[in-house]
UniProtKB/TrEMBL annotation:
Response regulatory domain segment(s): 19-136
Record PROSITE patterns: HTH_LUXR_1, HTH_LUXR_2, RESPONSE_REGULATORY
Domain HTH luxR-type intervals: 161-226
PANTHER family per record: HTH-TYPE TRANSCRIPTIONAL REGULATOR YHJB-RELATED (PTHR45566:SF1)
Protein name from the UniProt record: Response regulator transcription factor
Family matches, as Pfam families: GerE, Response_reg
Residues annotated with 4-aspartylphosphate modification: D71
Keywords, sorted A to Z: DNA-binding, Phosphoprotein, Plasmid
Organism of provenance: Paracoccus albicereus
Length: 231
């Protein structure tokens, strides 16, 4: 696995990571990861959540974990949305994206959105543990052979855009997702059981936060950071 420097931000080291949250909707994957982490890091228990919403609720109820391992595709979130959402709640917690999708653009989007690393689900136990330990010690870790598909300046612009998306409220994120699906205000109003005037108010706020003038521009910006789609 390649690394891209490090950051500290006053965070704890790998040896101090004791509370881990796995967000993955596949029970077997959760069980395998939990067992590996317990054995390799001497943990008594590992938290799990089967959806992004469940993870958010658990964090609110039980507090922030020391580290998060997040599946790329969840029932209620695809692409970089999971990282953007959790980064808003956990600004200093290392979030590892795990996936079978090794597309360079998706890796770049995840890293720009605030992931500490991106690893393959096919990694062996030794490589997985080594990658997690390095991430929890502050390294940025990406798959071996990964080459960012754009220049550093573009990566920074994408990271800045991801930070702007992170300022959206959960309701605004839902509305933006529906906009990206081509839904009209009336359809969004019906689907979310809110007044159409409320939808318009939220859209105005969304446009202001992400600096977009039109719905089509908002969709393009969301697509540029792979916010809702994995591929």
């Amino acid at each position: 696995m390649a690394s891209k420097g490090s950051r500290s931000g006053g965070r704890i080291s790998a040896d101090q990571v004791k509370d881990i949250l796995i967000v993955d909707d596949h029970p077997l994957m959760c069980d395998a990861l939990s067992l590996t982490l317990k054995i390799s890091f001497g943990l008594k228990a590992v938290r799990t959540a089967r959806s992004l919403a469940a993870a958010v609720d658990q964090i609110k109820a039980q507090g922030a974990p020391d580290a998060v391992i997040l599946d790329l595709n969840l029932p209620d979130a695809r692409g970089a949305e999971g990282i953007v959402t959790l980064r808003r709640q956990l600004p200093d917690v290392p979030i590892t994206m795990i996936s079978a999708d090794m597309d360079a653009a998706m890796i770049s989007a995840a890293m720009a959105a605030g992931a500490q690393g991106y690893i393959s689900k096919s990694l062996g136990r030794e490589a997985l543990v080594d990658s997690l330990r390095r991430m929890w010690d502050g390294e940025f870790v990406t798959p071996e052979g990964y080459e960012p598909d754009q220049a550093d300046a573009d990566d920074e612009a994408r990271a800045d855009l991801a930070r702007r998306f992170a300022t959206l409220t959960p309701q605004q994120m839902k509305i933006l997702r529906l906009i990206c699906q081509g839904k009209a205000n009336k359809e969004i109003s019906y689907e979310l059981s809110i007044a159409e005037a409320t939808v318009k108010t939220h859209i105005t706020a969304i446009m202001s936060k992400i600096n977009a003038r039109r719905r089509t521009q908002a969709v393009l910006l969301a697509n540029s950071v792979r916010l809702f789609e994995a591929g």
